[in-house]
Amino acid sequence: LEVLPAGSFPFAFGIELFSGDRLFVTDAAGGGLGVVYRIDLSATPVEVFPFLSGFDYTGGVTVDEDRLLVA
After folding, report:
1. Which residues lie below 8 Å from residue 29, measured CB to CB, with a gap of 6+?
2. What confidence score (pLDDT) does residue 30 get?
3. Nearest 5 degrees, angle CA 9-CA 10-CA 12?
4. Which long-range contacts (CB under 8 A, 24 or more apart) does 5-10 make?
5. What is the chain's mean pLDDT, rounded?
6. Which of these, 47, 43, 37, lies nearest to 16 by C-alpha position?
7. What are the strands, taking DSSP E only, across 1-71?
8. In whole angstroms, what is the distance from residue 55 CA to residue 11 CA?
9. 25 burial type by CB count under 10 A (0-12 exposed, 13-18 middle, 19+ buried)
10. 0.85 exceeded by the pTM?
């Protein structure tokens, strides 16, 4: 299933499905440019929002109960 065009996140590293209709994707750009994006799958068309930013290197992402953990 393709949600967004290939290359939408040039340095995509981690992905996590949350609550069945939201994806979180880390973009490990480095140099303070790393971002965690929230993708709303329930919207038509799909909507993408920067959720957290300013990371030097954004690695993995996971959901623990109601917390989003970013490495």
Report:
1. 10, 11, 35, 58
2. 86
3. 60
4. 8/48, 9/37
5. 91
6. 37
7. 12-18, 22-27, 34-40, 47-55, 61-64, 67-70
8. 13
9. buried
10. yes
Calculate the alpha carbon distances from 13 to 23, 42, 45 in Å.
13, 23, 23
Give the pLDDT of residue 65: 81
Mean pLDDT by runs of 10 across the 71 residues of the chain is: 88 90 92 93 94 90 88 87
User: Tokens in use for 1?
Assistant: 């299933």
Query: How far is it, in rounded angstroms, from Cα 65 to Cα 27?
Result: 23
In the block, tokens 């290939």 appear at 6
